[in-house]
Amino acid sequence: MKISRKVLERRLEIEEILKTLDENVDLIIVEGKRDREVLMKLGCKSQIIAIGEMHKPLFEIVEEIKEKCRGFRVVVLMDFDEEGEKLNKKIEMLLEGYGLTIEKTLKNKLRKAMFEEDRRRIEELSGILEEEF
After folding, report:
1. In sequence order, which residues have a C-beta less than 8 Å from that of residue 50 and are 6 or more positions away?
2. pTM tops 0.70, yes or no
3. Is residue 129 over pLDDT 80?
4. Cα(86)–Cα(93) distance, rounded to whole angstroms?
5. CB 100 within 8 A of CB 62
6. What secondary structure letter does DSSP report for 102?
7. pLDDT at 4
8. What is the DSSP-derived secondary structure letter of residue 28?
9. Which end of the chain is more exposed for a tag (fewer CB within 10 A), N or C?
10. What digits encode the pLDDT tens for the residues 26-71?
11. Measured between alpha carbons, how far is 118 from 24 in angstroms, rounded to an integer?
12. Please, are residues 51 and 70 in contact by the beta-carbon 8 Å criterion?
């Protein structure tokens, strides 16, 4: 089956967003191990923290990030479902309160591109970019 031009363009857009994101942030915060693994597999070289692996309350995780990452440019990439969006906003608000710079523009572009693929979870990025037709 032939890949449509629109799907190919969206895949290239997602690849470019991830590349630009990786070049412009020092830290990527994700929900879980699979999210981190997918981003690493797709070539992200920035430090990636999976909050689900830390087994601590959120406020302790944020405190730890604040202490270790002063001056870092950060992107919070929780899943783009209702629960993930709520968690994303909470983490961003807490980190901004500590003076960290949060990248939102590229995250929002990634969200839009993933929604067009009817995908909501970060770990699904691998499937979007590797799917065969």
Report:
1. 30, 31, 32, 33, 35, 36
2. yes
3. no
4. 11
5. no
6. E
7. 78
8. E
9. N
10. 999 999 999 999 999 988 999 999 999 999 999 999 999 998 888 8
11. 26
12. no
By C-alpha distance, which of 110, 114, 94 is closest to 102? 94
pLDDT for residue 57: 94
Helix, strand or coil, per DSSP, at residue 50: strand
User: What pLDDT is recorded for position 2?
Assistant: 64
CATH of domain 5-116: 3.40.1360.10
- Residue 76, classified by CB atoms within 10 Å of its CB into exposed (0-12), middle (13-18) or buried (19+), is buried
- Residue 70 has what DSSP assignment? T
CB atoms within 10 A of CB 24: 13
**Tokens (6 digits) for 64:** 């730890």
Q: Where are the domains of the chain?
A: 5-116
Q: How far apart are CA 69 and CA 26, in angstroms?
A: 9
97: nearest Cα among 74, 121, 131? 74
Residues in the chain: 133
Is-contact 116 10, C-beta < 8 A? yes
Yes or no: say if 51 and 30 are a contact pair by the CB < 8 Å rule. Answer: yes
